[in-house]
Amino acid sequence: MNIVVCVKQTVDLQQVRIRKETRQPVLENIPLTLSAIDKNALEEAVRLKDKTGGKVFVVSAGPETLEETIKEALAMGADEAVLVTAAELGDMESATAALLLAGAIKRMEGVDLILLGEGSADNYSGQVGPRLAEILALPQITYVKSMEVDGRKVKAVRSLEDFLEEVEVELPALISVVSEINEPRIPAVTQILRAGRKPKKILKPADLSLKIAEGRSVETLSNLAPVQERRGILFKEGMKELPGLIQALKEEGVGRK
Predict the structure, then answer these.
(1) Which of 57, 166, 180, 189 is deepest in the core (most CB within 10 A)?
(2) Which pTM was predicted?
């Protein structure tokens, strides 16, 4: 089975700081990494490969820095990487990303399954998966929390707001996963060293006969952290401070109708 995993390069959200004065995130000089849920998709692909055989290909589109970041995916168990890079792809929209990913995948033969995270760690629009399935004319299953491959069929469980749904689809297909599906592995040092020797193909949008449209169809008006006015109050003496705890809860309006 040949599995394609679409991954996105994002800033490491664990290291993002918020400016207190403006409530805006500080993104300068933040290390780059793979989107967290895409790692779940890659982990699932590697587990499937171990069971069924075949290869795992990672496909991604972004700026030139993507070439260094993709080593993490290769270290996690992907066999090959196909990258579409250009300076202007550093902040592209979901529609552009899906178009470029589809262009790269169309050049590959014998793709049985496409996996990706349900949403990216940075903006979580959740659009790339459905757009990609539409362009490639593939059936898709979203919000997948567990899955198994039985011959040429995929049986998956979707995690929806208040219930679970079991779905079955014929391959080839596209599946987007949620983080609950697994725990991504941490590559060993030897795997990281071997990652640099794995095959990697670098493409440009022109190689896919695609021209990136200028301008943006969606404009971000504001990107602010939520206002946090509440303060933490610590009660160290247990039951001795129960009256103070009750008073603090009353001041917060707890129990007030």
Answers:
(1) 57
(2) 0.82
